[in-house]
Amino acid sequence: MINKILSRNNSVLWIIALASIIVPFFMPNRYFQDIIVMTFLWAGLACSWNLYSGYCNRLSIGHAAYLGIGAYSSTLLYINFGISPWIGMLVGGAISAVAALIIGGSTLRLKGTFFVLSTIAFAEILKVMTITSKDITEGALGVFIPYEPSFMNMIWASKIPYAFLTWIYMLVALFICVKMEKSKLGYSLIAVGENQEAAENLGVNSSRTMLIAFVMSAVLTSFGGTIYAQYIMFIEPTSVMSLMNSVNFILLAITGGMGTAFGPMVGSFILTPISNLLRGYLSSVSGLHTFVLGMILIVILLFRPDGILPQLKLFFNGLIKKSKVRKGV
Amino acid sequence: MEQILQVFISGIFSGGIYALVSVGLALIFGIIGLVNFAHGEFLMLSMYFAYWMYNIIGLDPYQSMLINLAIMAIIGYLTYKIVMERVLEANHSIQIILTLALSMVLQNLALMLWKADYRSIRIDMTTDTTYVGFLTLSTPRIVAFVIAIGASVLLYLFLQKTYTGAAMRAVAQNGKAAQLMGINLKRTYGLAFTIGISLVGLAGLLLSPIYPAFPLVGSNFSTLAFIVVVIGGLTSIPGSIMGGLLIGVVESFAGYFAGPAYQQAAYFLLFILVLIFKPNGLFGKS
Amino acid sequence: MKKFLPILLILVLLATTFTGCGGGTGGEEGADSEPFKVGAIYPLSGANALLGNQCLTAVQIAVDMVNEAGGVHGRQVELIEADAPDPTVATTEAGRLVDQQGVEVIFGSLASGNAIAIAGVTERTGVSLVESGGVADALTDSGFQNVFRILDKGSLRGATGANYVGTELADMLGIAPSDMRVAIIHEESSYGTSVADGAEAKAKELGLNVVAREHYATTITDMSALVLKINEAKPDVLLSVNYINDAILLVDTLKQYNAVPKVFMGLGAGTTDPNFAATIGADSDGFFCTDMPTNLPLDVFTDEEMRATVSAFREAFLAKFPDLLNVSIAAEAAFAGAYTFMNEILPNAETLDPESIREAALSTKLDMTTLGFGWDLGDDGQNYAASANVNQWQGGEVVTIAPDKLKNGDVINVPLPIAAE
Questions:
Q1: pLDDT (tens digit, 9 = 90+) per residue, A125-144?
Q2: Which of A181, B99, B199, C260 could be a cystine partner for B37, CB 3.0 to 4.6 Å?
Q3: Contact between B261 and C279 using a beta-carbon 8 Å cutoff
Q4: C-alpha closest to that of C44 among C61, C27, C57, C26
């Protein structure tokens, strides 16, 4: 019965996700379209993060590292060898997979807080390496992508194709999460998240489960990194691989609901536009915008740590019940 | 050889401050089990208070120490009551994110109220140097080191030798059992948090003649404190002291041999190695 | 209802911030013609907030002055500001200013990363970017058509300092260039890197020995290891690119370890900051600081009107920042860029569309701007009349040593009296 309701709610959420592509067409100007693009992109990124961290409740606060690997891999290949970012994206994904395997292999078995700190450490090390390898990465100067619009270059003049691209990215991430949720991997992962010992006693190979999910998460995030680079057209270590970005993954997922497929999407749909609009309105007072964001997060965490999604689901549940009553069921 | 010793000593001195910042965190984590990512922001607040007291009242940091500690203790207690107490039972993820949000709020509150300007306290002692043999030592750093280590040792003695300290250790070991023995859990937690924040406040005060206050000054220290605490064995006070000193030295040598660009990366690397090979810390119990 | 309480709380929080802080700067009601909208994008939060806020104030003063004099093409100028702590936000904010607010010129950026990101946006929309802060060469080397940079580029600034070291200072020290040992230190952001790159290239060109090059994160709290390492290489001259905080820390540490070189050639920002000498004290006498012209005595401006403008600007700026002794270079440059563009360039443009503005920007040649040098843009948008001055701290004041036409003092303290021996 609960499953039925949940899946019915999921279909409502799917409808929202699919229908959201209409929004950019109704936006009055490019600025709002830009916000939509970033909303979709971050929805996809947050879902990718959630794939591992959300389901098994082990926070990675260093996911900006994979964003960076994706962004730098495709960009450097494109700038230096003219390789299309579509291919560069796959290369970035491969590199991220390898990185995640190595890092995950060594740190996933660490308990809670230790794992979290290790993710921060890895992101920092990667950032320093990027800055110091100036010959390859241009270091702190950053890499600028020249404006040559074409499909092969993943560069377009209008925001609409970008909106499509990020929307599809979001859908792919959502789809993978939803599929995984219902699969053996998903159940195992959630079980490990709830109680690792108990899960292992039931025969779950927790390290393998976590590693697979972790690698998937890293690769998906990395794809988003390539899209990010091709959209912003300028990357530098301190802004791409920043702690603020890493925190943003968590912020969006938590707001919507960690450990649910659609939670990060809801979180991004709500927070990304608000964050950008706030910044626009509040720029006259330095720091006010981030202050407000932080306060919002605190309020959510103190009063609704499960995020907004469960509320939404209850809401939809209520609607469905009401419609049932009206039909006289 | 002389250079090496010099590098070593300056690392030790930095390490003393890292140790002081970290013992507060170890205390909070050990007794309350709370992950406090906003730890560095309290250092920042303390530095600002030291600055105001110097500028408005004319007391240098060493003179305003007691007032500063009192203010930090009050702030620590209030933070505990308003924010932390609610999430004591929540899982670590929530605590981590909550304290991350708190650090965002505090950093930007400072930015809003006090702007981004660097607030330096330059007292006579700031550029003083003391010569010990062939070693050149910055006087304020010597003072900071001595006080920092002194405070850390005092904390250790407090935990070992006093009744309240014993109560705290009991709570750290087993909260429920301690409760059964009549120890008031909430009050102990509150005290632990308050002491922890006061200590990191003291670290900020000691740093203020050397380094300016600005909204983001604490962010580095937060991450660093966690690394020290983990290397030190997570809940061990002596471990955190040793860990702090070790990090200071590693940072210094990395800067000397590889270059300052690698200073941070070096101790992050050390951190990862410890996590992988000795997750209970280098100085903790096995 | 209790379930929805926290959501209500959030909505109330948002509502109060929206209403309490109002949106944007209101346009003038009652103006007959449409206001001419310009944008200012600077880091107002984050690590560069200090200088970013100063630059914004400088641009605001410029806009006020221009409006008092009648505006641009008869239209009052409306300034819309944006906070961009990093390039990604800069991109979105530039988009907001251009697409939503309809600005036609953007003044920025302080950080080169921001500049390049904004340039990407302005390029595609025909909006002009008047750059007065980011020095990275890439900004004008990338073929942008609508970027106009009033200040020098990083490589030139670094080269100017290195050149002075390798020519004049080598003479004064009595060391042949090939024997001169030079160490380069810089903060690790794009600013430090571009200037240091220029300095290193020039130093090598002159045949100097670059014996060390180190960079550090601006958040560094202890430079002992850095200083000890550099000192191992026994440099005669230190070429250093810093912000104010690390500049002071560096000098303190150099003094502490008795590692002060014979010559300290600062290259911008920190070492030219008014607080540098104020904090270091008398020991700062003799420290060189190569940067955009700063704190020029008013008689350098032979044109009375310009002299009045500079004087009025400094007064208005220092009124807003009472703790400062002098106007920072970043702010001077920000003012110069905005004022020159609105006061000299735009009036020369036939209409206010992009091609017209670009033509005016490139064809207008000025002998002098409020920064102390002229305006002469190459096709790449770089102002080639911009030249860094070689300055020296003397008695708490910045004295210009080179170029000759701005020189107002002689070199002292070479080698530095506090240099190690």
A1: 999 899 988 888 888 888 99
A2: B99
A3: no
A4: C57
